[in-house]
From TrEMBL:
A Pfam cross-reference name: DHC_N2
Name the record gives this protein: Dynein heavy chain linker domain-containing protein
Residue ranges of every copy of the Dynein heavy chain linker domain listed in the record: 1-137
Protein family membership: Belongs to the dynein heavy chain family.
Transmembrane segments: none
InterPro entries linked: DHC, Dynein_2_N, Dynein_heavy_linker, Dynein_linker_3
Length: 160
């Protein structure tokens, strides 16, 4: 920095001696090593939670970096799930899923957002699947009843 302050010509400052010629290839090599390590780390996280393959590296880094505060990554959850609702009192508890039409389905048991983000997102995925399975099972039981009015019942039941 002192040499850059003394020599105002940038080309002359950088190419004036062999220091930069020797230093830059070494720095480039270290940068490539860091990039490979980062790519490997993100790949391991994507293998733990495959929906991470659908988001960019910067978004994934932000999610992983802020995993201790689940409400701060809530905007990014829309890239992974349609919509989820957090508990109003406990900001680390997901209690329901929502559709873009405004339908809300509460989970039987909330999903605690603690530990590794890929772990609780897998837990959330299992809870969503289980909830949808239960809703479909309850609706299918209604069809057995000959008195069941499909049109009236459909209004009160979430549809897929």
């Amino acid at each position: 920095m002192a040499r850059a302050h003394e020599t105002t010509n940038a080309v002359e400052c950088c190419a004036g001696d062999e220091t930069m010629g020797q230093l830059l290839p070494h720095l480039l090599e270290q940068l490539e090593t860091c990039q490979k390590s980062l790519t490997g780390y993100l790949e391991s996280k994507r293998l733990c939670f495959p929906r991470f393959f659908f988001i960019s590296d910067p978004v994934l880094l932000e999610i992983l970096g802020q995993s201790s505060d689940p409400s701060s990554i809530q905007p990014h959850l829309l890239s992974l799930f349609d919509a989820v609702d957090f508990d109003e009192k406990k900001t680390d508890l997901i209690v329901a899923m929502c559709s873009d039409k405004g339908r809300r389905i509460a989970f039987e048991k909330g999903v605690q957002c603690s530990g590794g983000v890929e772990l609780w997102l897998n837990n959330l995925l299992q809870t969503v699947r289980s909830t949808i399975k239960n809703v479909i099972a309850l609706q299918s039981q209604c069809f057995v009843d000959p008195e069941y009015d499909f049109i009236a019942g459909f209004v009160h039941t979430c549809g897929q």
